[in-house]
Each structure stands twice: as C-alpha cells, then as structure tokens.
Amino acid sequence: MANIEATYYPQSGFLAVLGAGESGVGAAILAKDKGFDVFVSDKGGIAEQYKSTLIAEGIDFEQLQHSEARILQADLVVKSPGIPEKAPLVQALKASGIPVISEIEFAAQYTDAKLYCITGSNGKSTTTMLTYYMLQKAGVNVGLAGNIGKSFALQVARSDFDFYVLEISSFMLDDMYRFRADVAVILNITPDHLDRYEYQLENYVASKFRILQNQREEDYFIYCMDDEETMKALPAYTTKAMRLPFTQQQVLVQGAFLDENKNIVINIPNKETFEMNIEELSLQGKHNVYNNMASGLIGKAMELRNQTMKESMSSYVNIEHRLEHVACIGGVNYINDSKATNVNSVWYALESFSPDIILIMGGVDKGNDYEMLRDLVKAKVKAIVCIGKDTVRIHESFEDDADVIVNSSSMQEAVEMASHLSKKGDTVLLSPACASFDWFRNYEERGDKFKEAVMAL
C-alpha cells in the first residue's frame, strides 16, 4: 500500500530513523549533514561499530526500545527495510500522516549521480557486483550500495561518485516514491518473502515493478523475456524508458540473446553490437548467462568499450557466500551458497553442478514450495543433510527423490556427515533455501561456519 504522504515529504525538521544498521546509520549521518534534527531508534541492540559512529557524529539514539511518543513527533521517518509495514509503530506513523520512506529514497534526492538499479528474486548480488566491477575496470567513478556494500546515504553524504550501482530489494522499493532509476533491471520474479506480502504473489510482483516508477524516455528498462512472472505482469506496467529484454530462447533485434554458436549478442539502437561466447565467461551456468546479459546491457547502454566488457566478464570472481568454492578435499568440492535463502536460488545452484551432490539445506522455512526442486534433486542429489529447525517439510518433500535424508545438530556435524557421504568427484553444496535466523545471526555467519567446518576436516 503506497504511503501517499511520502511523495510530499519535508526537507527539514525532526527526522527519526528506525533501525541502526548500515542503512539507518548512513541515513542519520546524511540527515544530520542536511540540517535535520535526528533521532535514531532501534528496538534491538545496536552493534558497537554503529554505536561508536553515532556517538562520534553527535547523533541522539536509543536501543532495545522505540520511544513511540517521541517518534510520533517526527516530520519524516526513514525506516530500515527489515521492519515490516504491519509493525504497530509503522502503522501508527502512517495513521498520523507522517511520511515513512527508505534510506535509498531519502538519499537519492541529494545526488545528481546516475543510478543503475538491479532487483529480482535471484542473481541481484552477482549482477550488481559484476556491473560494478565492469564500470570500475572502465575507469568510471562509481559507488556500490543498496543491499550490498556501504550505505548509499553515507556515500551520498561523504563521497562524490558520478554513478551508483544499487542492489534494490522489494522491501526497499515498498518505501520508494520519488526515486528514479536511470537504468532499472528486473532479473526475475519467483515467490519469496511472501510472508511480507499477505502470501499474495501479485503483491510481491507489484513491489518489484515499483523500480519503473518515474522513469523517463532517456532511461532504460532491462528485463528477462524468459521469466514467466515478469512477462505475465509486464502488460500492466507502463514505462517511458527504452525496453531492453534479454533471452536465451529467441533472436532479438533489440536487447540481448544467445545465437546458434552460443554467443551472447547485445544490440542497442545506435550503439556498437557486442558479442562474446559463453565459454569465455568467468561465471558459468545458465543463470549466470542471464546475469552477464543484464550487466552487458547496462555496459552497452553506457557505451563501454567491448574490450573492457569482455575483460570484465571473463575475469570477474563471484561474491562470498554465493556459489563460492571453498576447497577440494579428497577429490570432493565444497561449495558455499549460504546466500541461497529461497527455493529458486537452490534451483540455480543445483543447475550449476553435475551429479553427484550432497546438499546441505534447511533453516527458517519461509513457506517454501519445494516442488520445483524435485526433478533436479532426483537427477543430481545423492543425499540431503538437514540443518536448522525446520526439517520436517524437507523430509516430506524429498523422501521419494533422495536416497538419504539425515538431520544434523550443528553446521560442523552437517559438514562431517556430508564428508562421510561423499566420494571423489562429488560436490558438497551448502544451499539452504531457508533463512538463517534459527542457528545463526545471518547468512554470512552461516556461510562462515560452513567454511570453518570444511577447513577443519
């Protein structure tokens, strides 16, 4: 539900920030620099690094509570994307007509930099990082922000970039109104975080398509023609931006496609054509062809040199916790894909490796439908080792497809079990399909514990 008042938010006065993580503290610093009276409130504990930053900046804050009466005096509220709209305090703010916006929305009004914005259910981080890497190699003065890197607001306040590559989540988009992307990318849409969207896929889709709002004729909209939900929703959303689709299933006059020789071909009107064989890509697998197509379209829209793009796409190394190769021990490859917190991410991971796979999965189930994994599990997975608290549905879903399904009581035990179940030539893959908040603080800690356990074998 759009917060109508948010389109008319004030430029001065009392600003409250809800959440004191990376985005919240960055927003607080930018707000202070712009002359707001700033108060930061976090219902949980504030990490030491952020607390010391707030103290050093002279910004008033509280932790382990929300002083509701004080926050309801705010002229403007910047909310952490992790706080749901249904939270009582957010509901009270909106009932009082107080605009509630995201850090990205707040910061964008204070920069003239070009904004290249990437959203989607899967591949966001890889595509964002690849694009950032490509622009850096081209000598572009570029920042990296959003769901990844340093706070966008902090960089707007204290850095001076001409371009930003932003990884944008649906939670951020929900609180964005005036924001305009010079390039908007929707990689794909699959059911995820539906608990935040009343378990209605169309609500989640609508959230993703907010990335198109306010685009102009000189802007670009990049999307996947092979993605069912994107294409189903597309007719309902208009944009003035130039449309640049990408596909692996047909030839296009405008956009990116695969030719019969497995070359990625990129055609944008009035730009030089780009071609590169998929064998030359540093990131292999069908899903990474899509990621490279999306990044390549951004590069060509910016008129980067073909040689620079090829060098970037052939030398980029994937981000930590996303199909990250940890070690090869006794001929067994150990892969850390802890960032795979939904079923579709696991599908991509399984699609990237040949049999035989020992799959470590589980955690906090977000209402997962495991049906789409069954064929791949049947064809490629020889054993499943469950981690976390929600293991019943994994057993129920795959009891007919995997020969072995076992539970573990810790990440160390899970890795040891996987090691015993594997033989030379196998792959042990941590790709959980679930959130991490039962055993771990976040997916990074989960991935780090996996790596520690692997190195201890």
From TrEMBL:
Protein's GO biological process: cell division; cell wall organization; peptidoglycan biosynthetic process; regulation of cell shape
EC number: 6.3.2.9
Gene3D superfamilies to which the protein is assigned, alphabetical: Mur ligase, C-terminal domain, Mur-like, catalytic domain, NAD(P)-binding Rossmann-like Domain
Catalytic reaction(s) noted: UDP-N-acetyl-alpha-D-muramoyl-L-alanine + D-glutamate + ATP = UDP-N-acetyl-alpha-D-muramoyl-L-alanyl-D-glutamate + ADP + phosphate + H(+)
Mur ligase central domain ranges (all copies): 118-296
GO MF terms, alphabetically ordered: ATP binding; UDP-N-acetylmuramoylalanine-D-glutamate ligase activity
Domain (Mur ligase C-terminal) ranges: 321-434
Subcellular compartments: Cytoplasm
Main function: Cell wall formation. Catalyzes the addition of glutamate to the nucleotide precursor UDP-N-acetylmuramoyl-L-alanine (UMA).
Name recorded for this polypeptide: UDP-N-acetylmuramoylalanine--D-glutamate ligase
